[in-house]
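Deliverable D2.4 — example input (C-alpha cells):
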C-alpha cells in the first residue's frame, strides 16, 4: 500500500524537498502508477492526458535515478514541440534543483553553437525535439552512449507530425540496455508497432482521470457566419469578462487579424504562432504563464501539453478540423481538477467537423444563442474596469525553490582555464561551506556562474572578495537572475 504522499517511494531528501516546495502534496493517479514502475527500471507505456501530472510522473523517478557524478547525459526526453521541450526542461530542472541536476533543452530555431557548448559541460538530462537532436547526434555534439532513460512524450503527436523515422534514428544511437517510457493521449496502431520495436516487456498503464477534462469544462457553441465572428468574439469577451483567455484560430493569418483587432480595442493581448521567432514564442508563453496579459491568440502550437494555470476561458474562433485538437485546445482550461469554460464558433460549412467532435467526445456541445445587445451593454462597464486593471502577476512555478539560492558571477572562465574543480575547491575552503552548498556551475568563455544553495550566498560573496580562485583574486558579484 502506497502512502498518499511522496514519502512512500524512498526518494532522496533533495527530491522530497523540491517536491514539497513545488506544493505537490500527494501523488496524482499517473504518478502513483508510473513512479514505482520507473524506479523498478521497467519499460512502460502510459496512456494519459496532459494535466494528469505526467511530466512529474517520469521526472521524479528519473531525477532520483540519475547519477550526479557522471558527466555524460543519462536521460533523454523527446517532445513534439519546442514549447513543450522548454516546459519539460523547466519541470525536470525544478524537481532536480536540490540534487543539482543539469538539464539542457535542445530544439531548432535556436543557435546550434550555444547548445553545443552547453552539451560539452556536465549534463544529466537532455530534453529535445527530434530534428535538432538528430543534428547534434550526426555532428557528434551530443554523446548518447550513456543514455539509460528514454522518454517519448506526446507520442501520438510526434507520429502525427511525421517524426517516426527521426525517433527511430535517435533510438538507434542509444544503448540497448535502458529504460524506455512512452506517453501518449491516444494509442493508435503505429504506436503499438513502435513500442514492440523499442521496448522490452513493457507494462501498459491507462490512467483514468477521476474527472476527465471534458467533464470539468463547460462547453458551448455558437452558430455564426464567418463575417460575424469578430463581433461575436467581442460580445462574448465582454459578457464573459475572463481573467485569462485563449483564443484559438486555425491559421497564422487569422491569429494576426484577430490579434490586431483586439489590440486596437486595448485588449491586454498577445499572439503565438509558428511563424514567429522562437525566442518570441517562448517569451510570450512565459509571460502568459505569469499573467502579464489576459488574452492569447494562438494557433495549435499552443494547444498541446502546455501547462498554464488558471485559464478561465478558451474560445475556438475557428473550430478545429481535427477532433483531437478540440480536446487539447479546451484542455488548456480546467487544469488539474479546476473548472473552466470552452466556447466554439461554428459556421454552416463547418458542421461536419462539429459532428466529428461530437462523436469523439461522446456528447453534444451545448448550442447557445448569442447574447442580447442589452446584456452586452450592461456587462460593458465591468469589462472596461477589468481592461483598465493590470492583471495580477503570478509567481513562477519554481519561485519557491529559488528563495534560498543565490547565483554569483565570477569574471573568469574557460579562456583562463577555469574548471568546476577550481570553483568547488575554493568554495569548500570557506568556513561553513561544503560541496552540498554548491549548486549548478556554468563555465562560459570569460565568465562563470555558480549557484550557492542553503542561504549561504551572502557568506560566499563576502568571502570571495578576498579569497583567490585559481591563484588570483577575481571580480565576484551577485548575478542577475
Ligand atoms: P502535466 O500533466 O505534467 O502537464 O502536469 C499538470 C500540472 O500538475 C503541472 O502544473 C504540475 O506542476 C502539476 N502537478 C504535477 N504533479 C502534481 C501533484 N502531485 N500535486 C499537485 N500538482 C501537481
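Example output (designed residues):
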Amino acid at each position: 500500500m502506497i502512502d498518499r504522499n511522496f514519502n512512500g517511494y524512498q526518494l532522496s531528501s533533495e527530491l522530497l524537498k523540491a517536491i514539497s516546495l513545488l506544493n505537490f502534496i500527494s501523488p496524482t493517479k499517473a504518478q502513483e502508477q508510473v513512479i514505482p514502475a520507473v524506479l523498478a527500471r521497467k519499460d512502460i507505456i502510459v496512456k494519459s492526458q496532459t494535466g494528469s501530472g505526467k511530466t512529474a510522473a517520469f521526472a521524479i523517478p528519473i531525477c532520483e535515478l540519475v547519477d550526479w557524478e557522471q558527466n555524460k547525459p543519462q536521460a533523454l526526453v523527446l517532445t513534439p514541440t519546442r514549447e513543450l521541450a522548454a516546459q519539460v526542461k523547466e519541470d525536470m530542472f525544478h524537481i532536480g534543483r536540490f540534487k543539482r541536476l543539469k538539464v539542457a533543452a535542445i530544439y531548432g530555431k535556436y543557435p546550434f553553437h550555444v547548445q553545443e557548448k552547453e552539451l560539452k559541460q556536465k549534463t544529466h538530462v537532455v530534453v529535445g525535439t527530434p530534428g535538432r537532436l538528430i543534428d547534434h547526434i550526426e555532428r557528434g555534439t551530443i554523446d548518447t552512449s550513456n543514455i539509460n532513460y528514454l522518454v517519448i512524450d506526446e507520442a501520438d503527436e510526434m507520429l502525427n507530425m511525421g517524426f517516426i523515422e527521426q525517433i527511430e534514428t535517435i533510438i538507434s544511437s542509444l544503448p540497448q540496455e535502458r529504460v524506455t517510457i512512452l506517453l501518449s493521449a491516444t494509442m493508435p496502431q503505429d504506436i503499438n508497432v513502435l513500442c514492440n520495436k523499442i521496448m522490452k516487456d513493457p507494462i501498459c498503464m491507462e490512467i483514468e482521470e477521476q474527472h476527465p477534462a471534458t467533464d470539468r469544462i463547460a462547453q458551448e457553441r455558437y452558430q455564426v457566419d464567418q463575417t460575424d465572428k469578430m463581433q461575436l468574439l467581442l460580445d462574448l469577451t465582454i459578457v464573459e469578462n475572463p481573467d485569462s483567455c485563449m483564443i484559438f484560430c486555425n491559421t497564422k493569418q487569422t491569429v494576426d487579424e484577430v490579434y490586431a483587432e483586439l489590440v486596437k480595442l486595448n485588449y491586454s493581448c498577445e499572439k503565438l504562432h509558428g511563424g514567429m521567432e522562437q525566442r518570441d514564442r517562448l517569451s510570450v508563453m512565459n509571460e502568459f504563464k505569469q499573467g502579464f496579459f489576459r488574452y492569447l491568440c494562438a494557433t495549435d502550437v499552443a494547444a498541446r501539453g502546455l501547462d498554464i494555470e488558471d485559464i478561465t476561458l478558451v474560445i475556438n474562433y475557428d473550430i478545429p478540423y481535427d477532433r483531437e485538437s478540440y480536446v487539447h485546445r479546451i484542455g488548456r482550461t480546467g487544469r488539474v481538477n479546476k473548472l473552466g469554460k470552452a466556447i466554439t464558433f461554428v459556421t454552416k460549412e463547418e458542421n461536419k467537423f462539429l459532428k466529428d467532435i461530437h462523436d469523439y467526445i461522446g456528447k453534444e456541445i451545448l448550442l447557445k444563442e448569442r447574447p442580447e445587445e442589452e446584456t452586452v451593454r450592461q456587462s460593458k462597464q465591468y469589462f472596461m474596469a477589468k481592461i483598465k486593471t493590470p492583471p495580477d502577476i503570478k509567481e513562477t512555478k519554481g519561485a519557491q525553490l529559488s528563495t534560498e539560492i543565490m547565483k554569483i558571477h565570477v569574471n573568469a572562465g574557460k579562456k583562463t582555464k577555469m574548471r568546476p574543480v577550481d570553483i568547488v575547491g575554493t568554495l569548500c575552503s570557506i568556513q561553513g561551506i561544503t560541496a552540498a552548498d554548491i549548486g549548478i556551475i556554468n563555465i562560459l568563455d570569460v565568465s562563470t556562474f555558480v549557484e550557492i544553495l542553503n542561504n549561504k550566498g551572502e557568506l560566499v560573496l563576502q568571502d570571495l572578495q578576498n579569497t583567490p580562485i585559481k591563484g588570483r583574486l577575481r571580480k565576484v558579484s551577485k548575478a542577475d537572475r
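The two ends are 42 Å apart (CA to CA).
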